[in-house]
Amino acid sequence: MHHHAYLWTGPKARFDQEALRRPPHPDPPPVGAKPEVLQRYREVAAGFPVSDLPPLETAYWLVKPASLVRGTWPDAERAAAWLVEQLAAHAPRFASGAQLEAGRLARLAATVAQRLDSGGDATVGFYLERPIYLSLALVTCSPNRSRPHLPCPRAR
Question: pTM, whole model, 2 decimals?
Fold first, then answer.
């Protein structure tokens, strides 16, 4: 088991485009579906795996390009430390300074490490200078507990 890190920053309005953050339905539209439904399905099927937008379900980061992986660690503590380092690096741009209180960050790191150790994933998001949003994710891999069928991006 190991953990992959992902980071995304961008306009909150783009982050809120949930249709672009959902994987395509596993079954294509039925024969005879409206052309616009077929076109939308094709767009999502082609675009979702290559989009840099954070998926609504954290495990689906694993289907994104391996180039989006910001780091990989075999132990949860080092992965959680990366998350805290990223928060510290973005601290000057946070909309609220209270989000970076030292005790809060220590508790967050401990909680994230515990979640990863148990095979779970972790995602946190914060507003930066508006309307920018920061999304950080740590995804457990080989296998992922919630989506064990998803391949490791480093193996592709």
Answer: 0.90
Give the integer Cα–Cα distance in Å for 124 and 154: 23
Asked whether 143 and 13 are in contact (CB, 8 A), the reply is no
Residues 6+ apart with CB under 8 A from 24: 41, 44, 45, 48
User: How far apart are alpha carbons 126 and 121 in whole angstroms?
Assistant: 17
C-beta of residue 39 within 8 angstroms of C-beta of residue 116: no
Q: How far apart are CA 140 and CA 136, in angstroms?
A: 14
> Using one digit for the tens of pLDDT, what is the confidence trace for 10-45?
999 999 988 889 999 889 999 999 999 999 899 889
SS3 145: coil
